[in-house]
């Protein structure tokens, strides 16, 4: 059961995340210069875009670990990263955040205590990510995909109302990916809000809403059905490419953007 989330028409309630005029500079690169965005409650929002376009930076801003130079990021009405949000927001980073010399169970048991998750949660999340048979293995002995799933399981401990998942299914086979997307759907059905980044276009079709980003701008705010009808295709890869190419015509990449935002 997800705490404190009312299930209902997402449009009729305040958004989970509200971003106004966000400016972020990383190194010499201006990643966002005035980004506005809302993420509705109780839905799965997919975040897609070429490598380097700003997906991870946006997620970091939402969980409150990204230094911002201007603008406002609010989660459930509170400033991102504020104390009150600590147990309500979970973040699965792009690189697994786990202790390599501890076992899967030790990692999960430790993090369960940190987030105040109830007993039994370790087994629940282990089953959800399909790692029951690996509980006593050290992280260092796992495959890359298994290690990433431990990190995802940690994000699902307790009852976070907002889950920010940065490429949670990378490196996984289609069967495992489908299993995990069923788990994401169950979480959303129970009232949680999910923001999931991905490079895999068939995953885009599993989202309620799709944000397509290029060079720090949202170039499409749509849903799977509209993505395909608006681009006149049945293939999500082709739809994605068509939107990117249209945007490239209107906003040609600069030499520096070409180096740091390669269309991969
Ligand atoms: N620590 C850093 N220092 C300087 N620049 C950075 C840093 N981290 C990211 N950047 C730059 O910020 C921009 C956005 O990076 P970000 O990691 O948000 O992209 P992304 O969309 O998540 O890419 P990917 O799909 O490869 O994960 C890129 O141009 C990147 O080079
Ligand atoms: Mg990233």
Ordered list of secondary-structure elements with their pairings:
Blueprint: E1 17-26, E2 29-39, E3 44-48, H1 55-63, E4 70-75, E5 78-79, E6 89-92, H2 104-115, H3 121-128, H4 144-155, E7 162-166, H5 174-189, E8 193-197, H6 201-204, E9 209-214, E10 217-222, H7 224-231, H8 236-250, H9 255-260
Parallel strand pairs: 3-8, 3-9, 6-7, 7-8
Antiparallel strand pairs: 1-2, 1-4, 4-5, 9-10
Helix pairs in contact: 7-8
Bound molecules: adenosine-5'-triphosphate and magnesium ion.
Adenosine-5'-triphosphate binds near residues 51 and 94.
Query: So what's the overall shape?
Result: globular
The total count of helices amounts to 9
Spatial sequence of strands, sheet with the most strands: 6-7-8-3-9-10
Q: Mean pLDDT, rounded to whole units?
A: 90
How would you characterize the largest beta sheet? 6 strands, mixed
CATH superfamily: P-loop containing nucleotide triphosphate hydrolases
Oligomer: single chain
CATH architecture: 3-Layer(aba) Sandwich
CATH class: Alpha Beta
Integer-rounded radius of gyration: 18 Å
Describe what you observe in this structure:
With 264 residues, the protein is an alpha/beta fold. The chain has a single domain (44-64, 90-260), classed as 3-Layer(aba) Sandwich (Rossmann fold), CATH 3.40.50.300. Helices cover 34% and strands 23% of the residues. The protein has nine helices and ten strands. The strands form two sheets. It has a six-stranded mixed β-sheet with strand order 6-7-8-3-9-10, with helices on both faces. A four-stranded antiparallel β-sheet has the order 2-1-4-5, covered by helices on one side. Strand 1 and strand 2 form a beta hairpin. Mean pLDDT is 90; it is low at 1-11. The protein binds adenosine-5'-triphosphate (ATP) and magnesium ion. Magnesium ion binds at residues 55-56, 94, 166.
